[in-house]
Amino acid sequence: MKKTTNQSGIALIYSENDFLINKEFAQAIIHEIEKAGYRGKLFLVNHDHCDQIDLTNFDVVINRSRKGSFLKNFKNQKFIFNRVDFSEMANDKYLTFEWCKHHKIVCNEIKILDMAKAKDYRYPLLIKNRYGHHAKEINKINEFKDLLSYENNASDYIVEDFCENAKRDVRIYVMFGKIIKIIQRTVEGNEFRSNFNLNGVVKEIKLSFLKKRYVKKIIKKLPDGYYGIDFFINKNKLILNEIEDVVDSKALSKANIDFNISGLIIKNIVKKLKNAQQFRNQALSKLEY
Question: Structural domains in the chain?
Fold first, then answer.
């Protein structure tokens, strides 16, 4: 393809909060769009003006907004990456749990916080904001009275058994149906959340043939895009913890993995555009949960 400006436009949409954290990654994506000869534009959205952006002149949307309702009228749903229904599922931990159970994927048992039953919970336990995206929104609860501060917004929180295995997890980076990198994140001392932002250690690893085959079966149930899947390992089994919709490349950099993620995203999208008619004719199956 000639590196001249193509009439096709590719819109990159970020929430304002995520953009502040991932500014370099977002700028790298725009650079790769323009390098490939396409028009690229960055849109920043927040809760108040999601519906005010004009995507009329864009053929592709790279959706990193963690939202989807404002994209439901976009002219070509197949060219939204990550897809609307996927983003809604991945950014709600309870919906992720429901999706896993529907597809018989091994995951931790969770429940929406119910204060009427909370005295009967087994303590200690973990409480998480079901729409949260950062390890700091996960807390250990040692007894019932520690839950009282969550009472007014109970439906926004999920609870699950406390597990020592949470000190170590595996993140699998997936791009357009393929595993591209796998890292392990580990924390030490009293910290129980395996997140490299909490002074965790990150390293690249390989999975066994059987574990990798299991992950590929999960990926086949998900639409095209770029995302991460986080697993705990318990008794040598992968336990799906969560799906990270707006995954970036910071952890890969910390593990000293030199990999052009933004370039690979655009390479995959350009390939879809070149085969646009064939791609449009493929069935658009709904996520089920």
Answer: 9-81+260-288 (3.40.50.2300), 89-107+164-255 (3.30.470.20), 110-161 (3.30.1490)
